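Open question from group meeting: does this chain pack into something compact, or does most of it stay loose? Before anyone orders reagents, we agreed to write out a predicted structure and look at it together. Recording both the input and the output here so the notebook holds the full record.
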Amino acid sequence: MNDPIEADVQFNQWCSCFFRPSSERGGFRMPSFDKDVRIRYIARLFAGFVKISAKYTDDIAVEGLRNLIDPGVSDELFLLFDKEIALEKRVEAIQSLSGVFEYFSRKCRTNLHAKRGDALDAPNYLCSVWWDVFPSMPSSVDLQRSETDAAFLALFQNLINSESVVIQEIGLHGLGHWQHVYPTEIRNIISDYLARHPGIDDELKLYAEASREGLVH
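Structure tokens returned:
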């Protein structure tokens, strides 16, 4: 598509499928864009989420993200594993998640320090359940997914190297979910993290140790 104005109109049309009050979504049909366009829009949305989210309230921004990543609502993120789409485009979309985590780093507090029973606002809640919802589980049988698995593992490593404790928690959460398929790699990654962060508080250390053994929820 060569017309940047038309491209923006279509991107905004695609976004509106997810980022609209629930009362307005009934009967709205997903535009029939091809897979290459949709994977590009996913990468664009993730990479620019701090700026894009400013157009919405936090509640709508977070609900829109949830609508996009939740397989119970949308199957859009299964494009990340669709072999009909060029690998480099899918890896770019995975890497672009850093923009969403930048949003979380600005909006969220560490969830490990929330008192039990505290109500979490919308950004904190989605941050705390991100990898419970996001369809990113690794494949122990599909060797053709090794490249996308590698992209996720690299993403998790980047997250735990963040200066933000909130973002470190997100990375440890993801690694904990993946430990059953990559136990050696993830034990090594988290052991290295603990060695490089000797001064972290007890709660974060315990969470890292649990993630290292795959004992996260």
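Observations to bring back to the group:
Residues 25 and 38 are 19 Å apart (CA to CA).
The chain has two domains: 1-136, 139-217.
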